[in-house]
Amino acid sequence: MRLIRFGDSGREEPGVLLPDGRRVDASGEFHDYDEGFFASGGLEGLAEWVADGCPGGALIDPAARLGPPVNRPSKIVCVGKNYLDHAKEMGGEIPSEPVLFMKASSAWSGPHDDVIIPRGGTKMDYEVELALVIGRTASCIDELEAMDHVAGYSVFCDYSERSFQLETGGQWTKGKSADSFAPMGPWLVTGDEVTDPQKLRLWCKVNGELRQNSWTGDMMCSVRQLVAYISRFMTLLPGDVVATGTPAGVALGMSPPRYLQAGDFVECGIEDLGELAQRVVAHRET
Ligand code: ZN
Predict the structure, then answer these.
(1) I need a surface site. Which of 28, 100, 136, 285 has the fewest CB within 10 A?
(2) Continuous H helices in 82-156
(3) Neighbours of ion ligand 1 (CB under 5 A)
(4) If residue 58 lies in a helix (H) or strand (E), which one and from where to where?
(5) Distance from the CA of 256 to the center of ligand 1, in angstroms?
(6) Where exactly are the structural domains of the chain?
(7) pLDDT of residue 173
(8) Ligand 1 mean position, distance from CA 263 (Å)
(9) What is the pTM of this model?
(10) 87-91, 122-126, 149-153, 272-276: least confident range
(11) DSSP code, position 29
(12) Range 72-281: architecture per CATH
């Protein structure tokens, strides 16, 4: 199944994208794709509703905005330097264990929303990543059970303001958390439709130019290993998002770096999962 959410930002309603391309409103049956939905077996209920032909579900206006495919999660856990070629381009040590950092959930954003250069930002960068959404609470689980805790997958861009990340001291959260810096979508593809999450091509283009072009088989720590590893340090709740790291080709890794500018167009895609497509815009005082 492909789960979508549609409507204005912060007021999205749940829906599904059917294999024939129709988008159907599921809000008559389901409140939202949030922690309670996943925790209470909502995915199974949704699958039954779809198998029954989506009774009572109207077609969604094709012009409707798509929001992120799940409600703003309790946390967004990111993995740093999980592709060797990217770890090398970033400089510094190659990590011996997964590097974890958090991204503020207020950065949550839709797949076609503008991405905003934060006030004072000068070094904005893109990072295409495979994201997974947790389907069942995971606390100190082992690798063999890890995949039972994954609801599905989506495309994520871990936007970063490198001057905040690397030039203001402390760790990385400051450079990762600006509004609009966590877009996910365009839909959540349920785990049963992804045969092997380590065999997906992923790419990022800026103004049509291919900047990142890799595949998830190059991760140093697999999805299975990451879910188990993260669950040793924190409880992953249903609906939480894990971004699994980015391959080489980010702006910072170029000589000289080619950071994003207002007006740039960023496309991030993953084989079988879809694409994000976003315009970079300058910060505006509100
Ligand atoms: Zn990242």
Answers:
(1) 285
(2) 84-90, 143-146
(3) 127, 158, 246
(4) none
(5) 20
(6) 2-66, 72-281
(7) 95
(8) 22
(9) 0.97
(10) 87-91
(11) T
(12) Alpha-Beta Complex (3.90)
